[in-house]
Amino acid sequence: MVIVQRWEPTTSPEFPSLIPFWIKVQGVPVHLWTEETIKTVGRNIGVYEDAEISSLNFRMRVHINGRLPLITSSIVEYPNGDEVVAKLVYENLERHCSKCFRLDHELQDCLQAKAEKKERLKETERYEETHLRTDSSPRPREREAQHVPRPATDRDRRTIPENSRHFGNGRDNIFGFDVKDPVKSMNAAFAPAIASKIPWVAILGNHDQESTLTRQELMKHIVKLPNTLSRVNPPEAAHYIDGFGNYNLQIRGAAESSLQNKSVLNLYFLDSGDYSSVPYMEGYDWVKTSQQFWFDRTSKRLQRVYNAEPNPQQGTAPGLAYFHIPLPEFWSFDSKNATKGVRQEGTYSASTNSGFFTTLVARGDVKSVFVGHDHVNDFCGKLKGLNLCYGGGFGYHAYGKAGWERRARVVVAELNKKRGDVKTIRTWKRLDDQHLSVIDAQVLWTSSVNGSVAPRL
């Protein structure tokens, strides 16, 4: 007897779009067992219908979109602003994938699980090749207990010129798969930035969602932390954009200059995702078309404002882009042809080229891209006028290389004191050694007399 089993990689049109579930809400203190609380949780995950609240039960009936992954936790906020993570338990839940929590397949057929397993094997091989064979330093948890690196930006802030804008770029700090309390871990990871009392931002890597919170829930927590300028997504694009943590920041001109009320430097932050969910396209994720569309529209809008009254300027203000997973174009460089830094492992980008590099070059305002992901690469290379830079591995909870100090990239935009616009954009790296040594200082961009030139709208 031959049994042929067929699994459809996409959800059948006949598959129901809304499925009613009774869902138990666990982990919420009894004094928050209110109809308002359960309605908020229910409306965050689907179409809320009813609730059952008693001394024994705190459950709700919600119609869930059957074409999307099930949401298994939700953040509930106390009246004083504190938060608790509620666990959502779906009653009578039978066939589903325990990895991606979709209802249209089971674990053995999950493309995401297969991709993650394959990439974990690759990452283990990379770790063993670059770290385990020769590294006699303490294990990550022991190293963290001995010494928590001070932000590399502390010393740099004391030495850069007054009319400058200073950006630290720490990358690849922690893995999420062995984290039991992601909120507590995030608070600890961001504590030095919060303690510095200066504005800071964050984007997600590919491991952050591997604990108990989704990428959306992670960003929703981050944006509530003190002094952060991070955003979940731009309001005008929230209904169509992929990922969580896509946003733009505008840096104003020097104080008391003619450009003090115009953006002279635009920062773009994008969510490059985690692993591909597209059938037959295994490996890492990428910046999607919807995100590129948002970037293109935002860049053009900022140029119109830059060129408009009052005090119209020529061309575009320069920009910098930050995301985690590198573009395939990073493969264009090695230790020999990079402007600064080294390549010590491959570029583990997506298996497809989304065209984002072409989009960036076509717009012309972004001068440098900064990524992480490949921990022991720290080079910058210039391709078609665009600097492609690795941040360098920073955290001790992620793999590194024996004898190769953890490092953080620093980026400084120096402003013209009189005109107020950006004069130069420079970068260097701080090593986590005894002296917080500076290496690989370089100029990424210098303004011309007539300003930066960009393509016509």
From TrEMBL:
GO CC annotation terms, alphabetical: cytoplasm
Domain Calcineurin-like phosphoesterase: 189-376
Region span, Disordered: 118-165
InterPro entries associated with the record: Calcineurin-like_PHP, Metallo-depent_PP-like
A Gene Ontology molecular function term of the record: hydrolase activity, acting on ester bonds
Name used for this protein in its record: Calcineurin-like phosphoesterase domain-containing protein
Organism per entry: Brassica carinata
